[in-house]
Amino acid sequence: MAPTPSSTTSTLTLDINGEKHHLSVDHRTTLLDALRERLGLTGTKKGCDQGQCGACTVLLDRRRVVSCLHLAVAAEGREITTIEGIADGDDLHPVQQAFLDLDGYQCGYCTPGQVCSAIAVIEEHAAGWPSAATEDVRPESVPPPLTPDEIRERMSGNLCRCGAYVSIVQAVARGARAHEEARTATAEEAAA
Ligand code: FES
Ligand code: FES
């Protein structure tokens, strides 16, 4: 039966991890609640539910957002990636592997958001975006290396109540190195 038009609900198609999901939502539904409560994608965590902890971070068109502050209706037509879509089958993403190898977590509640955020941080940095910790932000300046200070600043929206920050910074640094190696290998293959 065709959905009844309503001034408070909409029928959406959300593109999540490469799959289309059709659902009808109240316009006030956040992307976080749509993912968790409507679609069963509970890898994305709810911490504060007010944009302060980063536990709910997902990628929208490869850029990170806190899904508790993003309405589901505003995510239609965007490419949504949640923690469930980060690995390539059984092969973990290098950032996931680095978190695992370096114990970048304790209870793991913040980890999906940390991993999504870290992937976006690495891409932002590789694209030359400065952060508040970047000393020289002139457009012509050489992009700074992804130092621990840069990682701490860029990841500062993702809190960890277990305080696993030392290992998280190391994991992001290792993930960034893996990303750089993969980029170099791809460029060399293309040039060969
Ligand atoms: S649950 Fe979204 S920022 Fe905390
Ligand atoms: S690992 Fe427990 S909150 Fe971060």
From TrEMBL:
Pathway: Alkaloid degradation; nicotine degradation. It comes from the Bacteria. The keyword Metal-binding applies. Residues 10-86 form the 2Fe-2S ferredoxin-type domain. Residues 130-150 are annotated as: Disordered. Keywords: 2Fe-2S, Iron, Iron-sulfur, Metal-binding, Oxidoreductase. InterPro entries: 2Fe-2S-bd, 2Fe-2S-bd_dom_sf, 2Fe-2S_ferredoxin-like_sf, 2Fe-2S_ferredoxin-type, 2Fe2S_fd_BS, Aldehyde_Oxdr_Iron-Sulfur, Beta-grasp_dom_sf. GO terms for molecular function: 2 iron, 2 sulfur cluster binding; metal ion binding; oxidoreductase activity, acting on the aldehyde or oxo group of donors. Coiled coil: none annotated. Pfam families: Fer2, Fer2_2. PANTHER family: OXIDOREDUCTASE WITH IRON-SULFUR SUBUNIT, OXIDOREDUCTASE, IRON-SULPHUR BINDING SUBUNIT-RELATED-RELATED. This is (2Fe-2S)-binding domain-containing protein.
